[in-house]
Amino acid sequence: MKTLINLYILLIGVFLYTLAKEKFHDKVVGLENLIGFRILSLGDINSDKSLDIILLNNAQKKVELGVWDIETKQFTIIKNKMNVARDKIILNIISMDFNFDGKLDILIFYGNSNDKDKVDKLIEIDLFLGDGTGKFEPDPISLPPAIHILPFVADLNGDMKPDLVGYSSELNKNDKSTPTIWVNNMRPIGSEDTKEPKPFKLTPFKSKNPKDKVCKLHPFHSNSFIDFNGDCTPDIFFTCESEKDKNLKAFQIWTNTNTENEFELKVSQELPKGAKAISFGDINGKGSADMAFTTCDDKEGCTIHIVYNQQQELCKTAQSTNCRWASKLCEPDDSFKFDFNENSAGYVKINVKSMVEKSNQKKLEGFHWVLDEDVNFKGDHLPIPLRLGDFNLDGYPDILLTLTNQKQDKFYHMILSNAPCSLDSCTEGSTNNGQRTFQYTLDNQLPSVFPESKMESIFFDIGDRGKFDILQIPLDSGSYILSWHVEELNDAFFLKTLISNGVCLQNCPDNTNNNNNVKPYGVNYAGGTIKYIVSDTEGNERCSMISQMGQTSNHALLTPYNLVGLGRTNNYLSTLTVGVSKIQKQRHFTWSGIIPNSQLIIIPYQPEGSSDPASWTREMLINPSKHAKWVFGSLLASLIVLGSIVLTLYCIEKKHDEKERLLESKDQYEPY
């Protein structure tokens, strides 16, 4: 019997090892026959809580909608009647709820391929309203055109509607000293209130201090709407043209003052020479937005820069000072800073050439560059940022990138794992300050299906499993969109969140005759902030921060949900605080006792006239572990084995008792 038990344990172990060995599996998701298309935007088109995709062909003139089918677990291309302009090229698509009816709309930015070398190229903007079922109005609403740069989304007047920020052809044709805000005055279709004739009103960006001026915005920008000072409300990040050298970049951070269209300049700094697109995320897990970007050199290849947002951290003991208490996670720290001094405790550099040479992988020889722009994109070269996502659910974001050689004719896609700093990889100051870096591991390299095809990769939770998979998007016409299903065995937990725009509490009322009453899942709200405290298995608390859709320009391709790992924990989340851009005295609310491995939908709904976030609600959807069926199978097999053992022992015992009774009976009737 002991031999049978050992054999059973061995078989289970072999099965689990085999399951864990293969990390990446190609998965059919219905896009294999769609050659010559790229994903341009992500959103829930039909309000079913599943993420859909908006695609653009390589000619940049045709838009397709891919809706996720929960039953077939594939994308289905649906017909759309949008009258997209055919005489122009599409530069960008932003999908959000612009008319505040709880349904996803599509905003398209057009350009002219002949304007590539023009400084003030005209950017036309069309808005197609959606009905929440996958259908869009055929005729668009035209917005005032932009010039010079692609506008980005930010809610600057605090009404939870997406505004646009950039340069307008009307206000900035001869003066770029102040950016323009396209203030969103739209209302749901059929609304009785029609006092505002213009759906978008142009107004200059407003500074709290008139002496502070906005820099000249760089056309290849990473402009963002993210919380930088820790108060759980989004601030503005501008990418600037350097005043010292037009070939260099700088940046400004303007903090939110909780006043309509008014921000305060807090940081103005130069970026390193050659800085590319900037990505933001809580890289060291200390509760603030850090930045990551690349610089490249023809001789030394590319270098990844991690610049940490140095501000107050979570208090560790009752005697701690100059820190944030758990009850005051959203207390602002306006002394926050980004230090670009290479010897500082908040700066980490990773040279790709050195990383490749240390890997001892012959196939990576010469792959010292990062694919950081798409030179085939019409209109302008398209920046490709580093993609941040918690791939292994350890609580720290990893980097998804594409390595290439100097000729850019071969490519390798891989994930760099987030790891603690050591003296071998970071400076002494960064190591002693508990900062983190990124490292290459062989098993985190994706299979090469089209090694000579230029593709970019993004994180995507396929099928809502609570784990990041990977989509590879072709940047030329020689391949189709690839999908990689990730299978990695670990015992880490996750948290998936989605913040709505608070337009309604349950089914949003439909003022049209279509009766499309849907829940506000497909709104793609930009500017939400989440801070949460989680304990590891040793009881150490950590505060982390998430920003929702803080970047929208230049194909940021951020998901409208936030998927983060919690690492190994044996407890609930101590607290979870949600902040939004709404202008009122209290702009955040805290919940406690959040269950790990759950999907949390936050609806910051407030009745008309209310300024109290106590009416905000949360929907919690519990996800069973992806290994639940195997655990159940193992449990069932264990019960069968144990039941067999008990039954066998019972039969043996019964036979033994029967034998004893026979012997006793024989002794009783045996004659003397």
From TrEMBL:
Keywords: Glycoprotein, Membrane, Signal, Transmembrane, Transmembrane helix. The keyword Signal applies. The chain crosses the membrane at residues 630-652. It is found in: Membrane. The keyword Transferase does not apply. Pfam families: C2_ITFG1 (PF23122), FG-GAP_3 (PF13517). Residues 190-199 have a biased composition (Basic and acidic residues). Residues 1-20 form the signal peptide. It is a single-pass type I membrane protein. Residues 182-203 are annotated as: Disordered. Residues 520-620 form the T-cell immunomodulatory protein TIP C2 domain. GO terms for cellular component: plasma membrane. Belongs to the TIP family. PANTHER family: T-CELL IMMUNOMODULATORY PROTEIN, T-CELL IMMUNOMODULATORY PROTEIN HOMOLOG. This is T-cell immunomodulatory protein TIP C2 domain-containing protein. It comes from Conidiobolus coronatus (strain ATCC 28846 / CBS 209.66 / NRRL 28638) (Delacroixia coronata). The lineage of its organism: Eukaryota, Fungi, Fungi incertae sedis, Zoopagomycota, Entomophthoromycotina.
